[in-house]
Amino acid sequence: MSRERDPKCRKCRREGMKLFLKGDRCNSPKCAFEKRDFPPGSRHWRRGKVSDYGLQLREKQKIKRYYGLYEKPFRRLFDLANTMSGNTGQNLLVLLERKLDNCILRLGFAASMAEARQIVVHGHVRVNGRRCDKPMYLVKPGDVVSVKENDRSKNLVSSRLARTGKHELPSWLSLDPASMQGTVSSLPTRDEVILDIHEQLVVEFCSR
Hints:
- It is a single chain.
- By secondary structure, the protein is α+β, with helices and mostly antiparallel strands.
- The chain is 43% helix and 8% strand.
- It has nine helices and five strands, in the order αααααααβββαββα.
- A hairpin with a 2-residue loop joins β1 and β2.
- α3 crosses α9.
- The two termini are 29 Å apart.
């Protein structure tokens, strides 16, 4: 399986916004974006106006980097969103929010999307009592997401919950901290997407 080894802070600087790729560090004074909120490289300035293609590309890259996706998985989700009824852009964001690794992050079991993905891939997560090591698994209403019943998995997640403290849960999730178990009560909505994104530009780019 391929791994993302590029510097994470450069991605935030390139997109001109915090993508919270390093978890707690992004909310601390050590955050590189706070010190250098301009694009990376020796020539970070740009002459002229950014083209429509450039704007659309940057919006797509924001989504991919925030949710930790490569091009093929992203395209599969876009194709699925395009076949669903309703607004394609909103459907895409809802599908991205339903990813299991994102669900783990929203529950407070991990500090970043990369850490959430690692927790899932390493087999620390159960969905409806069964092992699920696929970060791209799409949760649905009624699903119960829990931690594997062993000391290693419990200690891993409990230490993270202790650090997150009063973690603000989205309305489509509920959490029982004592049993380290979360429940998907409903589908997420567009208003609950944290990322500041113009999804219509992404749809226009992918529809070329």
